[in-house]
Structures are given as structure tokens and as C-alpha cells.
């Protein structure tokens, strides 16, 4: 029984340090060739991109399958300054994508999530601040840190 207890504690510790990757794509259906992202992101913190031409689809990745989360897609960069574009409940999936709607209005510029069952400023957006997507992932698997770029250079990339 002692080894089982240790395994239970270790599995709880592993899930408590997990976080989700929030990604913005320039192609529909979250095609995984290249994207900008906030990797290992905690709940109630907004991830955004200032480049409105980039975000045809956006999604949540590396979700621990035992988590029940509410995912939020925002029209504006601040996740609380503009209308909530979509919200969805996820449980059991390791990723979730929101592609461009048929209408062609596909500017998703902010992403956030919170744990289902914990009321956390749903209407107001996030309580943990906001950060610009800081990683560029390329088709060959290489990643680049974008955190030190100004907005003009960031948009050009």
C-alpha cells in the first residue's frame, strides 16, 4: 500500500505543475506547420497576439486529459477589453481547436482558460494579467523567443 500512496502523491504533483500551450495559427483548423504561442500557460492569464492578420484559428494544446477547463477565445488583445468570441468546455481531450467560421470573421486575438467549477471572472475575462504570445514555432521544429521584440518587429515576423 505504501508504494501506491507514493504514486498517488507523485501523480498529483505532476498534474499540479502542468500548464497548457495556447497557440495562434495563420491557417484554418490549427494546422501545425508553424504558429505563435504562449507555452506552459497558467489559468486566468490572457495570451494574445497583436497581429490580426495571423489568427485564422487558435487552440489549446498539451491539456492534461484529467482537467476540466473552460476555454475562451477573444476578439481583442486584452481578453477583457472586447467581446468574447467563443467559449467551450473541455474534458478528456489533450487539445482543442477553434477554426475560422464560415463567415470569414476569424480574428481571434486572445486566449484564456480557467478550471470548470471555479468561478473566476468569466465575464470580465482574466484575473492574472495578459501576455503577448512569446514563442514562434516553425515547421522544422525550431522555436524562437519573441518576448524581446517590439510590436512592429513582432508583426513583421
Describe the structure.
The structure is a single chain. By secondary structure, the protein is mainly β. The protein is built from 2 helices and 11 strands; from the N terminus they run αβββββββββββα. Strands 7-4-1-2-10-11 form a 6-stranded antiparallel beta sheet, with no helix packed on it. A 5-stranded mixed beta sheet has the order 6-5-8-3-9, with no helix packed on it.
Compact description:
This protein has 157 residues and is mainly beta. 13% of the residues lie in helices and 35% in strands. It has helices at 2-16, 151-156, and strands at residues 20-25, 35-41, 46-48, 57-61, 68-74, 84-91, 95-98, 110-115, 130-132, 135-137, 143-145.
Protein topology:
Blueprint: H1 2-16, E1 20-25, E2 35-41, E3 46-48, E4 57-61, E5 68-74, E6 84-91, E7 95-98, E8 110-115, E9 130-132, E10 135-137, E11 143-145, H2 151-156
- What is the average per-residue confidence, as pLDDT, rounded to a whole number? 77
Largest β-sheet summary: 6 strands, antiparallel
Structural class: mainly beta
The outline comes out as globular
Low-confidence stretches: 1-17, 120-124
SSE string? HEEEEEEEEEEEH
Total beta-strand segments: 11
The radius of gyration computed from the alpha-carbon positions, rounded to a whole number of angstroms, is: 16 Å
Q: Give the N-to-C terminal Cα separation.
A: 55 Å
Q: Helicity level, as a percent range? A: 10-25%
Strand arrangement, largest sheet? Answer: 7-4-1-2-10-11
- What is the overall number of helices? 2
Kindly estimate the percentage of residues that lie in beta strands according to DSSP: 35-45%
Amino acid at each position: 500500500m505504501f508504494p501506491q500512496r507514493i504514486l498517488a502523491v507523485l501523480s498529483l504533483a505532476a498534474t499540479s505543475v502542468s500548464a497548457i500551450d495556447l497557440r495562434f495559427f495563420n491557417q484554418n483548423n490549427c494546422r501545425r506547420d508553424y504558429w505563435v504561442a504562449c507555452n506552459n500557460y497558467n489559468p486566468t492569464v490572457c495570451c494574445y497576439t497583436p497581429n490580426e492578420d495571423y489568427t485564422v484559428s487558435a487552440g489549446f494544446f498539451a491539456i492534461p486529459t484529467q482537467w476540466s477547463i473552460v476555454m475562451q477565445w477573444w476578439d481583442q488583445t486584452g481578453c477583457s477589453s472586447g467581446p468574447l468570441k467563443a467559449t467551450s468546455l473541455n474534458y478528456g481531450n489533450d487539445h482543442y481547436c477553434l477554426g475560422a467560421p464560415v463567415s470569414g470573421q476569424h480574428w481571434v486575438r486572445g486566449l484564456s482558460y480557467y478550471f470548470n467549477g471555479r468561478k473566476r471572472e468569466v465575464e470580465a475575462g482574466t484575473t492574472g494579467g495578459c501576455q503577448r504570445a512569446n514563442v514562434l514555432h516553425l515547421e522544422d521544429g525550431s522555436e524562437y523567443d519573441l518576448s524581446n521584440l517590439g510590436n512592429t518587429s513582432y508583426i513583421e515576423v
